[in-house]
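Hello Y.,

Per our agreement to keep a running log of every chain we model this quarter, I'm adding this entry. I've kept the format consistent with earlier entries: sequence first, then predicted structure.
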Amino acid sequence: MKIEIVKNILDANDQVALLNREFFDNLKVFTINIMASPGAGKTSFILETIHRLDAPSAVIEGDVASSIDSERIAEFGIPVVQINTGGNCHLEATMTREAVKKLSLDGVKYLFIENVGNLICPASFDLGEHIRIAISSVPEGDDKPYKYPGLFSSVDAVILNKIDLMPYVDFDLERFRKGIIAINRDAKIFLISCKTKEGIEALVEWLKSENPYR
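Predicted structure for the entry above:
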């Protein structure tokens, strides 16, 4: 019975996600679902990327509580709307649909959805995005692809953030790469530092190349 309930929830979510994707397609808004654990650098990545895209962008911020990240994004004049899940460990397609109603997407080329900080639940819920990105960070360790294969197998790209800390942390980069390749051979892998800005330009160029509406 429990399995059937979960299936029904996911099926209903997928139906709304399909409507969301059609909506984004009609507006020609390239939508990116960003998933990571708390503290991996999702908001920093979004800001550094938007600054370099040279195209109108907007953000949906997902958090269990608070509006700290959305306030930070708003300081730069970027259109942003906050979703507080009130305890839920992920965003859902219906939440995204309601949030979009509060955003003006006229002329927007990129919509970033910062999912709730979690490496399990967000992987199961399609929001209507065009691509999915997982962010991991050096301080978290090199074992994340092995521990959370559901997330890393579902994304189009994996970003390893905070590589400036590599000399100070016991992190095996080759092990990390092998873990991703073993479960998701097609995923692009980018090494970046939002602090030193290393690697961000290459990532931005990839995002531009993926956007059919730019």
